[in-house]
Amino acid sequence: MKNLLFNLKIAVPEKIYIKDPETSKLGKKIIGQSILLIDELGFDNFNFKKLGNHIGSNESSIYRYFESKHKLLLYITSWYWAWVEYQLVFETHNIANKYEQITKAIEVITRTIREDSNYSHINETVLSRIIINENSKSFLTKEVDQENKEGFFIVYKRIVYRLKDIILTVNPNYKFASSLASTIMEASLHQHFLKDHFSSITDCNSNEDPTEFLTNLTLNTLK
User: What pTM was estimated for this model as a whole?
Assistant: First the structure.
């Protein structure tokens, strides 16, 4: 899988950015360092002026790639979900047993993220923390319906569709497949957040990812 992923370009919806950051050294630096800075400051305290100072570049140069920090957040969240989608496809497509396939799919979506050496300018471990802490800010906005129409969330939705299809192979008569798929996605982020910040109200911990819980929940639901 690593050799295959090495040659793949993570595709993010084009309307999110003005200039594709993957096409230049500065663009890649903007993405890589914005992830580290958002992780350090939090998205609410992050802005392009601080990012410009951090990377030693004019604030105006960042605006040549993104019109706002919201669009930058949409970019890095879309990049993350596209990266997860590639792993989901590669790690499940040759599994014939439907129970093994859904177990692997849930593992890919819910596991603790390790850094991927195929993308040296992006620290996926740090990015995953941003997704856990900030992902909802990408769509809890007044513009969400228009942005959805423009395809900004298509990558996230594709993972839900793929997971829904796997759920239906286990139980074709289950009528809430989309709801279950999207619940697994969001519950994983929520349980990771609780594990890190409200450990007294979750059974997940440093030794126990949400994977086992959500696998158990899903398989029992589909019986």
Answer: 0.93
Q: What is the chain's pLDDT, residue by residue, as a tens digit (223 residues)?
A: 444 444 467 899 999 999 999 999 999 999 999 999 999 999 999 999 999 999 999 999 999 999 999 999 999 999 999 999 999 999 999 999 999 999 999 999 999 997 666 667 899 999 999 999 999 999 999 999 999 999 999 999 999 999 999 999 999 999 999 999 999 999 999 999 999 999 999 999 988 889 999 999 999 999 9
Report yes or no on 35 lying in a domain: no
Question: What is each CA distance from 2 to 76, 96, 116, 181, in whole angstroms?
Answer: 21, 22, 9, 26
Give residue for tokens 């993308």: 119
Q: Would 57 be classed as within a structural domain? A: no
- Domain assignment of residue 110, given as a range: 2-9+75-221
Q: What gap in Å lies between CA 75 and CA 14, rounded to an integer?
A: 9
**58 located within any domain:** no
C-alpha 119 chain-centroid distance: 15
Alpha-carbon separation of residue 134 from 43, 77, 129 (angstroms): 7, 9, 8
Residue 21, in any domain of the structure: no
**Domain total in the chain:** 1
